[in-house]
Amino acid sequence: xxxxxxxLAIFWGIFDYHFFIRFYSVSSLISQTGFFNxxxxxxxxxxxxxxxxxxxxxxxxxxxxxxxxxxxxxxxRRVYISGGIFGRDVTSIDYxxxxxxxxxxxxxxxxxxxxxxxxxxxxxTNTGSNYSVSYGVRFKAIDNPYQVYKxxxxxALDVYTDQNYxxxxxxxxxxxYNTMLD
Length: 182
Hints:
It is built from five helices and eight strands. By secondary structure, it is α+β, with helices and mostly antiparallel strands.
């Protein structure tokens, strides 16, 4: 399903196409009469002016390539997100830093059997006329999002319990949790 930006880019491209054809015919007529040749300026201008169209065309391609390079790893100590096209970026989050674990499944993800897990909160800052939003860490378009959610909740609880209530302080028959933290 196209986004509103894609629809705008289509209309933008149609307008620029008609503008380019008309301007090119007028500039060809002017250049034949000996005045300044507009053709040398027209092509670079139109390439730059079509930036929304290029973004609408190449944006999904870029996201598809980037999607194939992302890896999500869940260990018994923390969560890792690794990805990058030109270089490898690694982000790690300890279980105690996972704040608002939520699952979001939009209609397109539901059709593909995928979903998005939000691990940390989004933050917004407002400094006068400058407003920005920093999005939290997410596992995007993962398979079986509800099973991964349950796994993360269980491991986070196990780690939290082991860190706050070590087995050495518990009763003798306490077998502890399966986090292997010593």
